[in-house]
């Protein structure tokens, strides 16, 4: 398996609570090049927690496939890599240097590494040295409060990473601050390894602009793919807005995969996806969201999905 950066590479960003195996499988049907697991704690992996091990599972469609870990202690990372190394079908180990969540940050992981370039470099070196997978990558933000993105990118490159995904905000910027595409361009100009741009890319037009403006080697999309797994086909193939029939087909298949993967608990987990899928413009979306919030039975939930997504399309939507 070789990653091809001769053409722009399109990747699904890791999103905790969203980019599990069922969701990644749906996005993979719409021509995304690279999928990444949800962020996985290196400590939980090292202890071979059963729930954590399940997070490593992948769809046969996922090739290439990246596993993202959070960690900073080299010994813990090595133990986590022992578990990853024993698994077939993983092509990339990605280090999370962007998660702004307090519980991750306060554990000196995720975006906390942005404030300690030396520790960041050691973590990347550890993965590069001990992983038996073809690629090592890093997903980073621009800094903790102040931007030190060029310094960080150079540390990551020197430590042996094969490519970097850059979310164009600081940790303090969370998900609301304007994305600094100039900073992403500065990272691209500062390093020789491929750079993937991430942050507020939510349409084919925006993806094209970001690619041209930053000179990046790829585009990574996270939140804009939730409820719209077809966004990659829209960007790469010019797919039109999906018909009501296609949306229903996607939602039902996604739901069935959730039940297969999680059992009845998948009904509860799927509610958040239905909240976004239901923004397709069909009438009665508010009542539909209220209804699914109380359903616990898989058959009843599936029936409600079929009913809602079988309505006559409103103006601007197509049936077939």
TrEMBL record:
CDD domains: DUS_like_FMN
Alphabetical list of PROSITE patterns matching this protein: UPF0034
InterPro entries in the record: Aldolase_TIM (IPR013785), DUS-like_FMN-bd (IPR035587), DUS_fam (IPR001269), DusB-like (IPR004652), tRNA-dHydroUridine_Synthase_C (IPR024036), tRNA_hU_synthase_CS (IPR018517)
Top EC class for this record: oxidoreductase
DUS-like FMN-binding domain segment(s): 12-305
Positions bound to FMN: 68, 139, 167, 222-223
Protein name (Swiss-Prot/TrEMBL): tRNA-dihydrouridine synthase
Organism: Nitratifractor salsuginis (strain DSM 16511 / JCM 12458 / E9I37-1)
Similarity comment text for this entry: Belongs to the dus family.
List of catalytic residues: 99 (proton donor)
Entry keywords, A to Z: Flavoprotein, FMN, NADP, Nucleotide-binding, Oxidoreductase, RNA-binding, tRNA processing, tRNA-binding
GO molecular function: flavin adenine dinucleotide binding; tRNA binding; tRNA dihydrouridine synthase activity
Cofactor(s) the protein requires to work: FMN
Presence of the UniProt keyword tRNA-binding in the record: yes
């Amino acid at each position: 398996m070789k990653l091809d950066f001769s053409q722009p590479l399109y990747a699904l960003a890791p999103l905790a609570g969203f980019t599990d195996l069922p969701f990644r499988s749906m996005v993979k049907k719409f021509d995304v090049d690279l999928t990444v697991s949800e962020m996985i704690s290196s400590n939980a992996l090292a202890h071979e927690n059963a729930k954590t091990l399940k997070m490593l599972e992948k769809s046969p469609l996922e090739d290439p496939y990246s596993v993202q870990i959070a960690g900073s202690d080299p010994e813990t990372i090595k133990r986590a890599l022992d578990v990853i190394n024993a698994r077939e079908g993983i092509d990339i180990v990605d280090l999370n240097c962007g998660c702004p969540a307090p519980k991750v940050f306060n554990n000196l992981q995720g975006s906390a590494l942005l404030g300690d370039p030396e520790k960041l470099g050691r973590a990347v070196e550890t993965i590069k040295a001990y992983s038996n997978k073809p690629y090592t990558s890093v997903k980073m933000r621009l800094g903790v409060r102040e931007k030190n993105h060029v310094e960080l990118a150079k540390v990551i490159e020197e430590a042996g990473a094969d490519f970097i995904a850059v979310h164009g905000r600081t940790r303090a910027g969370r998900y609301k601050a304007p994305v600094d595409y100039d900073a992403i361009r500065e990272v691209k100009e500062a390093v020789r390894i491929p750079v993937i741009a991430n942050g507020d890319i939510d349409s084919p037009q925006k993806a094209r602009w970001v690619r041209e403006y930053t000179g990046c080697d790829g585009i990574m999309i996270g939140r804009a793919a939730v409820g719209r797994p077809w966004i990659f086909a829209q960007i790469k193939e010019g797919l039109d807005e999906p018909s009501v029939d296609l949306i229903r087909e996607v939602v039902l298949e996604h739901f069935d995969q959730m039940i297969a993967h999680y059992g009845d608990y998948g009904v509860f987990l799927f509610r958040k996806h239905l909240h976004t899928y239901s923004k397709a413009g069909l009438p009665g979306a508010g009542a539909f969201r209220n209804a699914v919030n109380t359903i616990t039975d898989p058959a009843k939930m599936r029936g409600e999905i079929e009913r809602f997504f079988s309505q006559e399309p409103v103006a601007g939507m197509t049936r077939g």
